[in-house]
Design a protein that fits this description.
The protein is of the alpha+beta class. It is 20% helix and 28% strand. It is elongated and about 50 Å long.
Amino acid sequence: MFYGPRPTQAPHHRGGFPLTLTLALVLTGLLLSGCGMTDNDNTDSPGGTADNSQEAAAGGLPDAGTATVDEAVSAVKEVSSEIYRFAGVPGKASEPGPGVKQCEGKDPDTYFTVYHPWNFAPTKPADLDVAMENLKEKLDTGGWVVKKMYRDNSPNKALNLVADNDAKKVSAWIVQYAEDETPSLGINVASGCYRVPPGETIDHF
């Protein structure tokens, strides 16, 4: 298995940008891991007792190829738009756009990763379960593979879904906040590690 560093609890956006880079590394750590996880209702959060089995990968983030920052950001935004469509119910997405960070252990002037945290709040709170079911189905087709489903160890035992798309070099982590005053899905899309073309620069934000 291929794990990055793990946060102490699942992401909760509350219109909240930015998420920590740690979350992006968790996602890209799972990306292209091939660890073959199956669905389960594990009560461990990413930072719970499952940490005892953490296996660090020596290679860092998976390679996403060569792209400019604009190209990579555009690709990640398109994946977020795809996930929005996959939800299949009317709702509102939060506004903040993607961020760009360096790839850990690599030249920050040459390598970068893109992450995009956002929230989706269905117009009808009752549609939250429908949206999560739609995402579970859609994120296991067309190049997407659901790598893991589990309930974390937060007070509300939120349902988490992690899915990878090898072709697009992205991973998505979705958390269902059904008990909040405004029920929503916390979503983070993260890329692998891109290499900037010769002569191009990287703006980290």
